[in-house]
Request: fold
Amino acid sequence: MKKELVELKINGRTHELAIEPSALLLDVLRQDLGLTGSKRGCDESSCGACTVLVDGIAMMSCTLLAASCQEQGITTVEGVSEHGSLAAIQKAYGDWGGAQCGFCTPGFMMTVKSLLAENPDPSEAEVRAALSSNLCRCTGYSQMYEAIRSAIEAEQQGMAAAK
Amino acid sequence: MSEFSIIGKPTAMIDAAEKTTGAGKYTDDLSVPGMLVGKILHSPYPHARIKSIDTSRAGKLDGVVAVVIGKDAPNPYGILPVGHDEHALALDKVRYVGDNVACVVAISEAIAERALELVDVEYEVLPAYFDPEESMKAQTNLIHDNKPGNLEKDYHHAFGDPDNGFAEADHVAEARFIANEVTHAAMEPHSTLASFELDPHTGKLGRLTVWSSTQVPYYLQHKLSLVLEMPMSQIRVIKPLVGGGFGGKSEVIPLEIIAAVAARKAQAPVKITYTREEVFWAHRGRPRTIIDLKTAIKNDGRITSVKARVVQDGGAYCSYGVVTILYSGALLGALYDIPNIQYDGYRVLTNKPACGAMRGHGTVNVRFAFESQLDELAAKIGMDPAEIRQRNLLKAPCITVNGLRVQSYGLPECIEKTVERSGWKQRKGNLPKGRGLGIACSHYVSGAANSIIRSDMPHSTVNIKIDRDGGVVAYTGASEIGQGSDTMTAQIAAEVLGCSLGRVRVIAADTDLTPIDIGSYSSRVTFMAGNATLRAAEDVKKRIAAAAAKKMNCAAEEIVFREDRLFKKGSVLPGAKKDPAEEAEVTQTGASVSGRVVGQILRGSLQQNRKEEGPKEWMTFEEAVVAAIDFHGALTGTGSYAPPPEARGGKHKGGGVGPSPAYSYSAQVAEVSVDEDTGEVTVHKVWAAHDCGRALNPVSVEGQIIGSVWMGMGQALTEEMVWKDGMLMNAGMLEYRSPSSIESPEVEPIIVQSIDPEGPFGAKECSEGSLAATIPAISNAIYDAVGVRLHESPFTPERVLAALRAKRKDKALNLTEGVDPTAPTHFREHGGSLCFKGKGPERHALDPARREAPASAGGAD
Reply:
């Protein structure tokens, strides 16, 4: 298939790329751009390891055409840490055991980020519902809830301190 | 001041940031210049002879570099020395749908996939065996010619006097239990990258480097050496981050060998990554197990005898099968004090993907049967299910009837704690209709006392190097697979050396750099690699202490290492971290001593000055390290661990499997509700107490307990590999029904610390033992809720409903059989795309990949 030139805005930077129209966003991220943080756990939107944010909305990049994401802002896990330090959720996942093997973790980071952007103080039921788009085989999810709770508290304290 | 400064505190894993930022590299994230992609052609038939393979059309496709077939690497291999029955690619026969036939190496995945369609294979389809009990009757068309009756291995053990035990019993229960097949489904699909270097002396292909998602880098190195006929010293295996294993990466998986063979033939680096469907075919999970169990008790609840006949549906190759069938027997009788046991185990071959080791290896399914039956017997004599377990406890330290040495035994406390936390005594029997509580126990080894390959080699070795900058580097062969092995290594090294965790860097699982370690399986790492780390750290500590003693004018034994300082025993910890100003000063002094501040790496002038100041009261860790290097030269230490002879078990045939230097114990209470109209079971909460000896990192221990319980719950309620004529009908994460956050219960982990006399700081395993108790705890809770006892896992709504109807003497519902009689019998030609042959949709006339099926393979339906 003939390649076409596309512009993708990823983590705030614009990349000009020649890709096949059928190229999936996950493949473009991993193979063309070397952004291997997004993982391939299946090929059919069932595991969520490839989750990225497209204009702030959590999407599974394994079934998303890269060419369809032009003019949209894409955030991958590589764009989550801020100003050279771990984001609160990244720190909390480490401290509370939210990540074991870590393969699903980038996907969860993106899902949690989109959840908290929409709903900064979700109930446990809301957290469970949001996380159900991603699968994990190590943790049984429990320690993730604690991590998310603690990250929310850290964010709130941070905001209170800023005021 | 607490006894320890590093261990026992919840600690973030040392690689946590790599994982949460996506910076960490797993095998599929790696690439090397000139790397090609490999794709594997899989068998569409469960059992067939390969009459011919013609790769010429595939080889001619533009972009294809090589096509590899069986005869490119015909040497057999297998994880067990007694089970070398696999080949990189099929030589003459395929034995399951998904068996490996050929591998295409191309410049892109798309081209490789296209080329797979052009490999012409002519098969002669043979009768296949799917049910183990049918398979055992086979006379002809054996799966392996040297295995009559398709029997991989059988064992017959009797300890004590089982028949007499039944004769003197008051109550006997007997039933058949079936646990269906489950698989690991680790989140990371297997991946291997293999690359040869050109040898400067011969000018030909020389050393091989393999990056692979493996739990056992050294076994992989060994098997590669067998298949490729290369010395092990010419093969380097590197384990990058591994995205979960659970046993699925604890042996050599076909793609690991195929990638290396393909790289040799293509003369270029080759990476192969499985699709999710291929991961299911690679399998090596927990076999479908048929357990005929008979248990006898006295009126006082004491078990007098147990008799088990276990048949495991092992799939097409040996894999870990011989070990699995032995574990089923060996650990059946070692949790409680059982005086008489008879065990007959059969590992049977069938035309399905091979089963292997999976979390709780061999013990899980028989534990489900045993704990369910014990519950039934408790009900028979009207005894509390918790109490009947308490009446049958071992009196540790002891040797069990089948020769297993038990030194630390936290089971009594586990039962006590779960009963207390779950409110068992008040709530059992007082819950609303349809809601119930169930209890069950389990245990597991902390590593096998006898390694797969019998030798006197230590099971783990760790080297530690400390440089003048005070940085500690631990070299360990142990494989971090997400369980926290690297963090454990760093914690133990830091604890022994009294330095901060941040000083310790762990270099792990690289056969060129790290000393041999047999791998991450059978929950052996904390116990064995932990002990090796402890010894290595003590070895190097001795040298530091000897040098420091001279400076401090005291005996080496008097020196305490703590919080980056060395001081004399009995004196107050100098520079206690209470005062930030003082802390800053100390740090600064320390830094200048190592020479970095003054720019002199080799000799800190400050240190020279101090020498003249007379004996020191205390030293910083860095000062002591510099002193030790000045005194001894290079500062290294090494330590290794081999299980003691007393822990290696009985002398009976098969007695080598089961013995461990220490066992973990678990007791769980599950609270469930059952919808009597739909048969749906909901697990509300599980209280899980686990005796892990000592919790080196409580947050990791809790994570392992919760993860085990969760995985057990998956097997109990939803997970099941569904087969139809040897084809896996649910080879996807959703179809396999791995529980999501919505279906996952709250798990309350309760850590019990029995402090094992031989464990590192008393630690034992914590990652597998809890799994087995969850399934029977749930089935016992279902019984408590609605009064039906389930004999087949998973407890799907269909099975629960069937049991409920049978109890009410209603007409049986036939929900699962004959649902789709038109389903094609042959499809899924290779990984990735779905491709029907015979019945089912045809490829479009203009599809470039369309071609006529070979005559002999036609009419496959």
